[in-house]
Amino acid sequence: MATPGRTAAARTGLLRYWRTLKRFWGSALASQMEYQVNLLIEVVAMAGNLAGSLLLLWLIYGRGQQLGGWSLEEALVVLGIYTLLDGVSSTLLRPNLGAIVTQVQQGTLDFVLLKPIDSQFWLSTRTLSPWGLPEIVTGLALAIGAALRAGARPGVATILGGALMLLSSVVILYSLWFVLATTSIWFVKTWNVTEVLRAALSAGRYPISAFPAGLRTLFTVVLPVAFLTTVPAEAILGRASSHWLLLSVAVAVAALLFSRWFWRLALRDYTSASS
Amino acid sequence: MAIIRAEALSKTYRVADKQPGLAGTLRHFVQRRHRDVAAVKGVSFTIEAGEMVGFLGPNGAGKTTTLKMLSGLIHPSGGSAEVAGYLPQRRQADFLRQITLVMGQKQQLIWDLPPLDSLRVNAAVYGLDDATARRRIAELADMLELGEELTRPVRKLSLGQRMKAELLAALLHQPAVLFLDEPTLGLDINAQARVRAFLADYNRRHGATVLLTSHYLADITALCPRVLLIHEGGLFHDGSLRELSSRLAPCRLVRLELEEPRPAADFVSYGEVEACDGRDVRLLVERERLTEVVARLLATLEVRDLEVSDPPIEELIGRLFRQGAVA
Fold it and tell me: Of A31, A122, A273, which is closest to B14 when you measure between CB atoms?
């Protein structure tokens, strides 16, 4: 506490970000309320997706097979977490990160860069689509319900560990997506790249051990799909080793730092090359 | 004290040199070729706090590039810029609080929401408390003659109303330096005049420094005692519009209506004969000789009417841009 002025400044700085975030989301909700029919569309889409995945699991397990040594209930935990992540994507990631490409194309990114606020913060939190919330709730309910049926009796540590893993997986997903969206500074049209990301991530519906060894490595090392759903599921089921927990947090922190570094790199090019 | 300083400011872009067609695309893919295009070449000027300066030049002359360098959006490839004591390209928060950039072709207001929502977002970003934000919005809305428009979705506003709301959003943090790139683009005459009046008023009230580009010379003549003319990336003129016009055309236009028709040869001793159509004569006369020539004309000839004017500045500048060469 040697520099009280500085801590006060930091506090008002954080306060300013908090107040900005409230304004961001308040105005986003206000504009979304004009499109209530979106709620119906999102719920129907979610129901369709979920039904398809459930049908597949039912077919596999109905014939007495198993997915990579996971019971049906355990596999449902993974599916629940996938659904939750998909909800987070619909609520926050897609509306914000999808708009970066447009901002680059239309040149309105310039307005963001001239605001006395972190540009990555602005671009990542500017808007919010409430229609993904049902998916978040459904995913969470499915994951918890299935974990309990699978016989998990979580203590405080397990719950905290699970929550931390979920947070890590959201951070990893966000960072990946943000990095891909950032490439639009060079390529301008990047939307199809993020579609590839979505396709690859749909592998996260099922436990990672269900995949052949090659894909398993790919989904762990190159695209960290394993950290998105399987690791949090194991944490919720109370059987994750502390190694994996730590590794997951480390991957999340590294991914976030990388996304910030990558954004600065892109901005350096943008400001030296754009017209 | 100079609030804006540009010293030998330059910007060179690297553009892909690509032949048209599929073959050209493939060749470019295999062997990339680039060409350097100098958008701004060693431009130097200083602007004092509170000045209103017009920035003129044809499309592609480097006006927008210069504004972007001064606001910190792009890095100069040579020379340096200093604005309000800061290096713009660092885009430090304290610097950004002191400047604003308005671009006529781009908008920052959220399309689906009333301007007021975007204004509240800006107020939070700039850390204004509610009372200050309310007071400033009220003051600016009053100056801009904006009322219930602020509570109507932006998409339902006219172009003029939208531009005024854009200005409000850009000025909410009370910047000391305003970079305005074509702020009246596409507006009708009335809306242009209102934006102009507002800018003059704002400059008077807050002592803000304004650097303005516009296609409409009327904006510049009405607002800017000083003009920077950029031509082919270089600074061609720095001074008043009047000086610019005398530099571009060191002559004045004398129109005569005579009682009797006369041949053109009779006028050669007075100045350059631009047109001679019997009784109507148009002469270009050097400024220094004007009074003497007019006196002589009136003494020697039977003149029914005589009119002296400046050749229109639009025409002079247009001629300069078309010629491409600097006189």
Answer: A273
